[in-house]
């Protein structure tokens, strides 16, 4: 079972890129972020023609998340992150696919910092940590995948000081990510890909050509599924395609569950 996450950075503008990648990589489950399309504008017919069922939460101009499943329809369990009913930003969706609960998330960027946007980022992170703890306590086989907008360590960014004031690298952002991992979640890319598994290259200053990347997109596995991890990686070639998103898809491959686990 191959599970991937991809900040597509406008699903309609990058639809050709997305469909090409789906055909070539054939992931079983895909988490998409930054749809930048309202609910009615999601390209469902094209996604279905590619062989995928979908659930999604759209939002015009910004945000928006979706979960795709190859040859199946994801079983929707949540349309938003619990903890703040007043939050209208479409940043979280959750569905069951092939016996695994998949949470697709687009964590707030938080810039400029300090300020209200950074405060919202940390508050959203606290809500995610609370929900993740609930999943962990239930022993659910779960994957929390998406654009976390956090560079976990200095090994996850090219050698530079130019991002030192950015919300992605702030001590509070990194501390929140560590708090999440301490619940028992496995950072699959760090486990299998290691340092330098960049997933994002800014459009500015020729950063793609210089491989001046950051690791922002993460797949975290609960203990009930982490033992099934076979491999993880990044489809860097997608970032080099014409009209590409500034992110590349990151993915994991899981072995099938044992018969006893299925029972």
TrEMBL record:
Residues 4-247 form the Endonuclease/exonuclease/phosphatase domain. It holds the Pfam family Exo_endo_phos. The keyword Hydrolase applies. Keywords: Hydrolase, Magnesium, Metal-binding. Its cofactor is Mg(2+). Transmembrane segments: none annotated. InterPro entries: AP_endonuc_1, AP_endonuclease_F1_BS, Endo/exonu/phosph_ase_sf, Endo/exonuclease/phosphatase, ExoIII-like. GO terms for molecular function: double-stranded DNA 3'-5' DNA exonuclease activity. It is an enzyme of class 3 (hydrolase). The keyword Ion transport does not apply. Its EC number is 3.1.11.2. Belongs to the DNA repair enzymes AP/ExoA family. PANTHER family: EXODEOXYRIBONUCLEASE III (PTHR43250:SF1). This is Exodeoxyribonuclease III. It comes from Teichococcus globiformis.
């Amino acid at each position: 079972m191959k599970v991937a996450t991809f900040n597509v950075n406008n699903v309609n503008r990058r639809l050709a890129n997305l469909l090409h990648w789906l055909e070539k990589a054939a992931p079983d489950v895909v988490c998409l972020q930054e749809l930048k399309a309202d609910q009615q504008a999601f390209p469902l017919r094209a996604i279905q023609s590619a062989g995928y069922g979908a659930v999604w939460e759209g939002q015009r101009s910004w945000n928006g998340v979706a979960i795709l499943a190859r040859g199946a329809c994801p079983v929707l369990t949540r349309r938003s992150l619990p903890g703040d009913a007043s939050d209208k930003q479409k940043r979280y969706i959750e569905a069951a696919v092939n016996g695994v609960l998949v949470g697709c998330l687009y964590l707030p960027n938080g810039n400029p910092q300090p300020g209200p946007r950074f405060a919202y980022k940390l508050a959203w992170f606290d809500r995610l940590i609370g929900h993740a703890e609930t999943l962990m306590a239930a022993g659910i086989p779960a994957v929390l995948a998406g654009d976390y907008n956090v560079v976990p360590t200095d090994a996850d960014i090219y050698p530079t000081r130019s991002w030192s004031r950015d919300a992605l690298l702030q001590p509070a952002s990194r501390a929140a990510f560590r708090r999440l991992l301490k619940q028992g979640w496995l950072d699959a890319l760090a486990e299998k890909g290691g340092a330098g598994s960049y997933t994002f290259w800014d459009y500015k200053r020729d950063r793609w050509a210089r491989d001046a990347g950051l690791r922002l997109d993460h797949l975290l596995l609960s203990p009930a599924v982490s033992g099934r991890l076979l491999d993880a990686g990044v489809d860097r070639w997608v970032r080099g395609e014409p009209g590409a998103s500034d992110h590349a898809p990151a993915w994991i491959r899981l072995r099938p569950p044992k018969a006893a686990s299925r029972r």
